[in-house]
Design a protein that fits this description.
The protein is an alpha+beta fold. Helix content is about 25%, strand content about 20%.
């Protein structure tokens, strides 16, 4: 996609490789079974707290939504408005200050007092994919972590307990290594011993070649290589292609025609509305909208039109020769026969 400041011309282009985001995979677990794990781990520095009743699906939701337990995008406080330990329908009677109000504390109708989502009392929703830059999925009964940070970033995992070890993201280091016996992040997670494939994906950036120079990008949308131009990579190729940036005049003018047509239709509808409805006749806001769309933008055009009219009157238009006060009574030209100079000289010499 080229913007208005993109340079016109041709460029030699080659998509060397596509970007790839990091992925991590757990061991196989029943997604709905309670795991009996308790503790806390961190994804890119964002904490995830796990309790014994959590399942793989529950942990997935905690990673994706953080404190937003009901996943509605808003911070919900405790349903127990008056904090008396029971769910009630609260009633505020009518008064001189306003109508009465009924408040049902059991907002979601589950019969339980749902606690506040603001666990740390900072008056905002914490955690979730927006903060940890990871999307959690359940795939083939595994918890999959997909990075949202592009092809130049890994997924950083850390834990205080052994939750990640029990889930299969970590393993105990083998003998002979400097970190022998310690819990470390796995580098290989095979999906099947018969047809083994490593489910752990390492990130990589996209690479393009433009006019013999190589450039890298965190995603498959490459910008900054050609001014005001974004290149979308579909696949890698060993062959170069020619990219030409030019002005598509027919499409440009067609879009202008569509814009003017839609504008004129809108003005016509406004005029029709104002003509048949007296209620808008004194509505200054509606009148101002019409003036802003028509009268004010055309002010300069009207000035130019009047100036051109005056100029036309002074010049005299075709078919109206008396417009400037000058009349032509005889349209025939006066003519005189041409006499050759040599003939005159001969006549003088001969007397």
């Amino acid at each position: 996609t080229a913007g208005k400041d993109a340079p016109l011309g041709s460029f030699d282009f080659r998509s060397v490789r596509l970007s790839r985001t990091a992925e991590l995979a757990s061991d196989v677990k029943d997604p709905s079974q309670k795991l009996g794990l308790s503790g806390r781990f961190f994804i890119n520095g964002v904490p995830i707290t796990v309790i014994s009743t959590d399942s793989l699906s529950t942990i997935k939701n905690k990673i994706n939504f953080g404190e937003d337990v009901n996943q509605n995008g808003t911070l919900d406080l405790s349903e127990d408005v008056n904090q008396n330990g029971t769910l009630e329908i609260l009633h505020v009677a009518n008064s001189e200050f306003g109508a009465g109000v009924y408040i049902t504390e059991d907002f979601n109708g589950n019969g339980e007092i749902d606690p506040t989502e603001d666990s740390n009392s900072n008056e905002r929703l914490d955690g979730g994919s927006f903060e940890n830059n990871v999307l959690a999925l359940i795939r083939d009964n595994r918890l999959i972590l997909v990075s949202l940070a592009g092809g130049s970033n890994t997924i950083d995992l850390r834990e205080d307990d052994s939750v990640l070890l029990d889930l299969g993201f970590f393993e105990i280091s083998n003998k002979g290594f400097s970190n022998e016996g310690l819990s470390v992040q796995k580098e290989i997670q095979l999906n099947d011993l018969n047809t083994p494939e490593n489910l752990i994906v390492q990130p990589q950036t996209a690479i393009v070649e433009v006019d013999g120079e190589f450039f890298s990008s965190n995603t498959d949308v490459v910008s900054g290589v050609i001014e005001d131009t974004a290149l979308l990579l579909r696949q890698a190729s060993e062959k170069s292609a020619k990219i030409t940036i030019f002005i598509d005049a027919p499409t440009f003018f067609e879009q202008i025609k569509i814009l003017f047509s839609q504008f004129n239709n809108s003005i016509a509808k406004i005029n029709d509305l104002l003509a048949v409805s007296n209620s808008f006749e004194e509505d200054s806001d509606i009148q101002d909208i019409r003036n802003d769309l028509t009268i004010d933008p055309q002010k300069e055009a009207r000035v130019l039109q009047e100036r051109n009219r005056i100029i036309d009157d002074l010049r005299g238009r075709p078919g109206n020769t008396q417009a400037t006060g000058i009349s032509v009574r005889n349209t025939e030209k006066k003519t005189q026969k041409d006499v050759a100079v040599t003939s005159i000289v001969k006549g003088i010499k001969s007397g």
